[in-house]
Write a structure and sequence with these properties.
Radius of gyration: 27 Å
Distance between the termini: 77 Å
Oligomer: single chain
Number of strands: 2
Helix content: 55-70%
Order of helices and strands: HHEHEHHHHHHHHHHHHHHH
Strand content: under 5%
Amino acid sequence: MADTYTQGTGRDPRLRVAYFNARTHKPFDALIELAMAASKRGQTIDATSEMNAAFLAAANELGVSLSELGIKISHQNRSQNIESSAADIYANYNRGVSLLKSNTPLDGVSVLKEISVGEYVENDTVLLQDKTNLTLGYYFLESGDNRSAVHYFRQVRRLSMYANKALVGLGWALLSPNTGKESATTLDKLNASDLSSEGYLWSGSEDDIAWSRREAPFRRAWAIAKGEKEEDLRAAIVPWMELISRDPLDPAVQEVMLILPYLMLHWNGQEARAQQYYGAAVARLKQASQDLAKIEKAIRSGGLISSIRAADIDSNGWDIWLSELTANRLGGYLSLLLDSAEFRNTLQELRQLDLIYKRLNTLGGGRIEAALAEVDDARATLASELEKLALTRIVERRHRTEAYSAEAEFALARNYERLRLQLSGVVWSGGES
């Protein structure tokens, strides 16, 4: 027996296509399908609350209302409540982060913990939950509560865009699982005078991922870990060894390039490996700097915009292009850009305008020509903005990579000098950390 459905309801194939487009951030396509489905049903749509929420989000993304398009949907209030609840989660995250920086940081922890233990389905909300766990992990790490830090770092999903930063923090938390500060308040820990403001190494990074290394966990530059400390070191190295072979353009991977040899200098019998890791870091960071310079040149010559537009035209589609680009050695830089909300939003607007231009261009006519010119001007403006955002990020990343490279060379030279003095009998490398 043939499957039957009522036009304009949740089982309507056209409505389901509209829903798919709305969920995959193609609002223009979604509203076209939605309007056509509504026209078959007297402009009223009787869909599920989840569909209605997606349609409202698509309309908001284009800055229009469904009523302006002559579309009426049932259960609209329920859908708006769904959207507002998602918006509340983002608002709570921002409020929690703000409170962490205030005189009442524990209030911020409470707000963020609610997000951390929530159950979410939408990808964007789950990603925010990963970011929340990362934020709590670094907060507790910097506060001295490493046991709590380990818990939250481990909540970040392995395939999340925040996974690499979480692995960096997890290693530091495992290195000192019992800090001996459990009796102090969180605010006391933040203001503790025994935290050094100068690290053994001198990276100019302001990222959370570099904070722990700059705090120099070994009080003496050449101290050797023994007993329980050596066991903690072995545990800490596990997540870092997982991270070391990943994309060298990633800031977290660059940080681990310096963490591993730094720790090996404090691990009995590992001085030779430390030297090897510093040498490898110097080579990889120099190559990364050269790659970023090539990427910068490609963006300036229009390569980013042309690649984006070619991907939308290609029959394989946008998602396939993103996958192939990320797998490509020089294409992986896109991940450095997509974690910027401003870049993602501008990219989405440009792709929508390109799609509108393409649709209008198939219609022709005098009035259409004027609209085409207006849309084309807007496309050029957005393309220019997108390139500026990309260049700012890539140039910043290149400068930071050069700083890491210089730091690795400095550490390598310092280690050579140490070995020279040892051979001359000037330095004794023993002692407890």
